[in-house]
From TrEMBL:
PANTHER family: PROTEIN TOLQ (PTHR30625), TOL-PAL SYSTEM PROTEIN TOLQ (PTHR30625:SF3)
Organism, as annotated: Acidovorax kalamii
Domain MotA/TolQ/ExbB proton channel: 79-207
UniProt function note: Part of the Tol-Pal system, which plays a role in outer membrane invagination during cell division and is important for maintaining outer membrane integrity.
Location of the protein in the cell: Cell inner membrane; Cell membrane
Protein origin, superkingdom: Bacteria
Known partners and oligomeric status: The Tol-Pal system is composed of five core proteins: the inner membrane proteins TolA, TolQ and TolR, the periplasmic protein TolB and the outer membrane protein Pal. They form a network linking the inner and outer membranes and the peptidoglycan layer.
Designated name of the protein: Tol-Pal system protein TolQ
Gene (name only): tolQ
Amino acid sequence: MNSQNMSIISLVLHASWVVQLVMLLLLGVSVASWAAIFRKLFALKRVKTLNEDFEREFWSGTSLNDLYAAAAQNAKQAGPMERIFASGMREYQKLRERRIVDPGTLLDGARRAMRASFQREMDVVESSLSFLASVGSVSPYVGLFGTVWGIMHAFTGFAGMEQVTLATVAPGIAEALVATAIGLFAAIPAVIAYNRFARDIDRVATHQETFIEEFSNILQRNLGAQPASSGHTASGH
């Protein structure tokens, strides 16, 4: 390779096949990483919007039965918080249909159902995070492997030369270093996105756990006030 022709494209094209394979792998991982980042970005925005809309409706004074009926009809488009609420109400009503009147049993059943639903919802919200974490941690090492291999290949080619100058060595070293650069190009956005999404998901989890406690308190107060009634409202709480 001509030492004067040091563009990125030329460096990639003149690299050894192992280094080119590493570069191709890292570029593919980078594309997949960016796709996962945009999917998660829109998904978290949707979760936040749906949760806020439901919470606003919940505290507007609409009866719990009406909210549950709406959640059952809107199950596919509902947000995580609405599905958590629906799980709690479903278990609560099933226990009431079995003529269980003990407030502790009713409240414990509803709480367990909501916690199980909460875990399912968080599993969905946290999807793709492990992929981003893997990209952020592994990509630099994959790029480094390509660089080491490229340097080894370059120095092997210099073994038969009587005189080795910087102009002779530079192209081979530069070709190898491109692999590390591509590895960092794949890793840095993944790490930044992972940290951002992990923080946002923690906020979503805290928000939903707070709702579970607030809804449990409402059920507890209503059970204490009207243990034989199933038509309570969320107004005034």
